Amino acid sequence: MRPARVFPRLLATATFCCAAATPGFAQDKPATKPAATAKAAVPAEVRARVVSKMDGARPEDVSGSPIPGVYEVTVGGMIVYVTADGKYLFSGNLYDLDTQQNLTAERRSTARARALAAASESDMIIFSPSNPKMTVTVFTDVDCQFCRRFHTQIADLNKAGVRVRYVLYPRTGPGTQSWKEAEAVWCSKDRREALTRAKRGEEIKAKPCADGAKALKAQYQLGDDLGIEGTPAIFTQSGDYIGGYMTPAELVNTVAQAQKAAAAAAP
Q1: How many CA atoms lie within 13 A of 69 on its CB side?
Q2: Using CA of residue 174, residue 178, residue 181, residue 182, what is the dihedral sign?
Q3: 120 C-beta neighbours (distance < 10 Å), count
Q4: CA geometry: angle at 197 spanning 127 and 221, to 5°?
């Protein structure tokens, strides 16, 4: 197996369990105001070397970093760093010790926001109020305990003005029972109703549909590209990964804070 094929999984150090929001959950806390950092131009041979060793990476995904001889690579919603010889790769947050700023978080959120904006809503199951005040994208598994608990509050979330874009992410992977259940939901005539029933533990009976496998694979791949670490995985429109299960009040407050921080960090 080529190292390039395993790096998204290495970044998503997933235990693949249902996730409750905790201080230790992989939440992004970008700098209030991103610092201006000088980045060296990337030599063509470095781009070619990195791309040859990382499946899915394109030449334009490679950029300079504040560290001489180390380059930043953006793939999907993930940021990694590689050495100029393409031999070593490492992931994690890069901090400026002088300013105490997390230089990676803002870049990661930008990449995630771009990936989420590019994702088609036709590949999602959406629960929305008439006049939404905020939108979140939630990666969900029909068998996940906290996902089910989250969905019991979907009416309260909508009442609070939250538009929820569900992306199916059966965390046990292709070919498993959870995957088959998710595909049955997707192939149902009324996906919203089927998802609600599935989250109550009801069996969903639906014939395989033409785009079922393809759509589910695309949704699952998006989750992998964003490096999610469990379900539910909640993202804001600005790309902040705000954690797992939250009550409606907690979610509204967290999203509002994320929106405020994003506005403060804007140029």
Answers
A1: 3
A2: negative
A3: 9
A4: 60
DSSP designation for 20 = B
The domain boundary residue, chosen from 105, 131, 162: 105
Please check whether residues 122 and 242 belong to one and the same domain: yes
Residue 3 within any structural domain of the chain: no
- Containing 241, the helix (H) or strand (E) segment is strand 241-243
Is 229 contained in some domain?
A: yes
Q: Which of 105, 132, 149 is the last residue of a domain?
A: 105
Query: Which residues, including other chains, have CB under 8 Å from residue 213's CB and lie 6 or more apart?
Result: 183
Residues 172 and 71 both lie in one domain: no
Q: Would residue 156 count as lying in a domain?
A: yes
- Whole domain around residue 81: which residue ranges? 31-105
DSSP 68: T
Token code pair at residue 158? 């909508």
Number of domains composing the chain: 2
Handedness of CA 18, 127, 131, 160 (dihedral sign): negative
- Mean pLDDT, residues 164-178 taken together: 95
pTM reported for the whole predicted model:
0.81
Of the pLDDT bands very low, low, confident and very high (cuts 50, 70, 90), residue 22 is very low
pLDDT, one tens digit per residue, over 214-224 is 999 999 999 99
| pLDDT tens-place string over residues 79-99 | 999 998 888 999 889 999 999
- Return phi, psi of residue 242, to 5°: -95, 0
**Quick check: 146 pLDDT over 80?**
yes
Per-residue pLDDT for 31 more than 50?
no
